[in-house]
Amino acid sequence: MIDFDIIENLGLNKAVSITSESNQVSESQLVVINQVKDFGIDEIYFSTDENHNSYPAVFLKKVQKFDDFALREVAIAQKKIWNFKKVIFLYVYSETEIRIYNCAEKPLLIKTDDFDYKKELKTLEIESYKFSDKTKLKQLQNLFSTIAIDTGIIWTLEEAFEIRKKISLQRRVDKYLVESLTYTAKQLQEEGLEINLIHKIIMRSLFLLYLEDRGATDEKFYSEIKKGAKSYFDILDDADKTYSLFRKLEEYFNGNVFTVDRNESISREHLLIIKKCFINGNDNSLQQNLFEDLRLFDFSIIQIELLSEIYENFLAEINPTLKQDTGTFYTPPSLVELILNEKLPISRAEKEFNVKILDPTCGSGIFLVESFKRLVKRYENAKGEKLTDFNKLKKLLTDNIFGVEIHPQSIKVAAFSLYLALVDNLNPKTIWQNKDYCLPYLINDPSDGTLVEQGNNLFRSDTIQQNPQVERLDFDLVVGNPPFGTKNLSQSIRDYSDKYGFAKEMVLPFLHKATTFSENGEIALIFNTKILTNTKITYQNFRKWLFNECYVEKIYNFSILRNAPKDFGGQLFGSATGPISIAFYRKNQPKKKSDTIVYYAPKTYIKSNVIEGVSIDGTDLKYLPREECKKPTSKIWKIAMWGGIGDINLIQKLNTSDSLEQFISDEKIYKGSGLQFLNNSTKNPKVDNEIPNRYIAPKNIRRYISHSFSDLNSGLTQRSKEIYAKYYGVQVEDLPTINVFRRVGAKKTYFAPHILIKEGLSNWKICASYEDEACSFNSKVLGLSHSDSKLLKGLTCFINSKLAYYYLFLCSASIGIEREEIKPNEVYRLPFSLTKKNLHHLADIYDRLIIEESKIFNTNTKKFEQEIDSYISKCFDFSIDESLIVDNFVEFTIPLLIKKYQYVLGPTNKDEIRDYAIKVSQHLNDFLQNQNLYANCTVYENINHFSPLMITKIMFGDSEKEVSMSSVDLQDISRELDKELWQKKATNIYFRKKLNYKTGNEIFIVRPNQRRFWTQSMAIEDASELILEILNEV
């Protein structure tokens, strides 16, 4: 026997036993334990958030040895975990080895008694480790310890590439079930069935299998339909009996779910195709054998909320235009959980269960189902017992859960999802079959003649039109994911937007009307981020209403996920292409008001490249001044999206300066955009013979100097040449030098000396070029002209400077959101504190930068640019810290936008940490002046490449000391601190917190091991935070 404790080695000591008593675990842990207690596992390792919500991360199973008996148990456990979906890793260990199995991969079908478990399970094995192999054990600890799991380091380390290749979310239960249903639908279409009938049969089957697998139907129920039948699959062998079953269920479920048309016709062969799909799956393979005892899908385990995901993804596959036409996007369960964890938490202290909830665009009901489940849990918290009584569950549902949806099929899925959630709590679960226990009528749709009675919970109607039955209710909580987009707008959306002066944007009326549904409650709705940043007056009107007429508590800005590549974890909204945000707000002011609005805006993609979600670190959490947010023209949403509090303060300081536009006016500098060539819409061509024929195209403009001229005619596209040929009455090849234009532009700026500033960026940099020869240019170029060449050369240096780049990046309406370009009015608004003397000094640097004889750059451009930037900082009277803020933003933040991650997200080093620690100490000591107390820093060197965290220590004493470099191995300490630092906020949306860990007269500063967290500007912000914490403790 090898003396090796694998649990301790991997940090799994806090894994929870599956046999734990309820008083030994948290409420959220108990929920999971009850869900998985029959999986054949022994322990669960949980990740826990700051609200003590726990989420399963790893399942553990111990075996005596890896023989056929144990391997069979592993195969059965893996299948159950696959159906559970929420956990990828199953760790199985003996006294001598550990094997890590992939529970995101489709399970094995065990077809024979002599099944080769050893061989077949190899396909599900991610890696195995013998405890005697010390080299491989190091890899095990680096890649599969709890730190590695919680931080997701396995998904980003180059060393784990081969392991990552073995994991694919495309074979998870939800993905594979949707794929199987889609292939089945296409197969049935080829057999001649109409798509709407196929849709009905598949959804009925899903519903029945959920009922059956969860014990809500039994042999007695089926044998009344067909003698000897024990399950739905027995019924499917007979088409007539199948329809008898459907009609029976139509009666039980009030026509809300099963509507059987008289002209429906389906053959036994068709039903067998459906049977195969639900037993073994259907991935379009040739294998047709059915193994009914080895069913792949287990609906007693597959979460009810997945029904919504399965339905909407299936519907999108068979009817892809519906989503585009309606502007709706499927809401992933993790986002639903994130929102409801904020607004409907279920800890043991939460006992209020009469909470009226509305989803104004409920779709297939994912928000409503999860909300109902949470109300049941709150009821149980209040009463101290399980809620299994039919009438109490029915009342809880009909009193509190409401939805509006325009799509008739979606609202029926919402209804039967809610029925399932109700039935799932019953004891006995078959009680709904008793005539004395009638399921509630939910759907209200006067146009549906099949409904036995109109319900009062799910309304099929246009939310934006008048809905008196809904509007007479006052809801405590409004949640949902309204449609967004600017195409295919309904008349009600157009009229509503016109009424309030809002942009023609689908989501805006839903955000606005939510306040009429909830006079005194809370609202959490998803929307597209451009609503925060678009500068058009109609968007400003909406922001003015939202931030002045309502009370906004917080905004989550998930825009970085817009272009998240699927090989980097996939998008939170798999089908959405625009930037996504969530608004938490209410119509009326709360009793306890805050002067700030909480703003989350992650700058990076998710931490894992196989788990969907988003990583939010402490630097992405901002508290924005409410008064500033109230201004509809404020740029704060853009500034805070990419910058920190230091950037917000610096931009505010810069905005108190004069503007470049004021200087241009004072010095009588000519300004304006260039010419426009004739096009088909030109009504009044303008003849002008003074415009220089020497011409420069925007693509030929470089920073500082260009000298890449052509002539006016070369600026014409082929289409433009044809328009001009028609104008002059000649052939294209005979065009004269053109002298007629749609617009002549700012003519005085064509004459030298002048500056040309192009609208687009050049390698992600602002591009201003000084020219001493007259030339014309088009309207994508801004020109400045003046007789003082030195003044213009100085201005060229300023516009190309790091400061101008910094300011424009943070304040431009377009850069980093839609298109990488700057508009003339944004250049004019640049803060400007330079005198003519300052500009002439910059001109001297410019003249040294350019070698006049050859008009090419001096070879040491970087050195000159550093001199320019340093001089401009002095002119603006920047402190050392303000200069660092600008420098660090350009070096460490902008690369996150332009996808140059390797450097800024790469591991830091001891020199960078040392500089960081010194800066923190300096700021603390400035604060502690005359207190006879000093902050001294210690930097730890022995944290290896695999460490997800880096640490420095601040110790307070009565004398000032040099930086201490410690060789103490902090792996064990970081392992403990990591449990507090990395915590899940929802199933797969991670909140990464900064940690200042205080003990005695010491503070451990813990941050992720990424270079961007250990910059000088970050040290400035962190020191301010520490000072605030110290003051709060006094």
Description:
The protein is 40% helix and 15% strand. It is built from 39 helices and 34 strands. The strands form 8 sheets. It has a 10-stranded mixed β-sheet, with helices on both faces. Strands 1-2-3-4-5-6 form a 6-stranded mixed β-sheet, sandwiched between helices. Strands 30-28-29-34-33 form a 5-stranded mixed β-sheet, sandwiched between helices. Mean pLDDT is 86; it is low at 567-571, 606-615 and 982-992. It folds into 5 domains: 6-167, no CATH class; 173-283, Up-down Bundle (Ferritin), CATH 1.20.1260; 323-596 and 604-620, Vaccinia Virus protein VP39 (Rossmann fold), CATH 3.40.50.150; 660-901, no CATH class; 906-1033, no CATH class. Helix 8 packs across helix 9 (195-213) and helix 35 packs across helix 39 (1016-1033). The protein starts with 5 loop residues before the first helix and ends with a helix. It is α/β, with parallel strands linked by helices and 1034 residues long.
Based on the structure given, which CATH architecture of the largest domain is correct?
A: 3-Layer(aba) Sandwich
Total strands: the figure is 34
Overall pLDDT metric = 86
Query: What is the molecular shape?
Result: globular
Low-confidence stretches: 567-571, 606-615, 982-992
Termini distance?
A: 56 Å
Q: What is the CA-based Rg, rounded?
A: 33 Å
> What is the fourth-level CATH superfamily of the largest domain?
Vaccinia Virus protein VP39
CATH topology of the largest domain: Rossmann fold
Name the CATH class of the largest domain: Alpha Beta
User: How much helical structure, as a percent, in the residues?
Assistant: 25-40%
How many independent structural domains? 5
Main beta-sheet strand count, sense and barrel state: 10 strands, mixed
Strand arrangement, major sheet: 9-10-8-7-11-12-14-13-15-17
The number of helical elements comes to 39
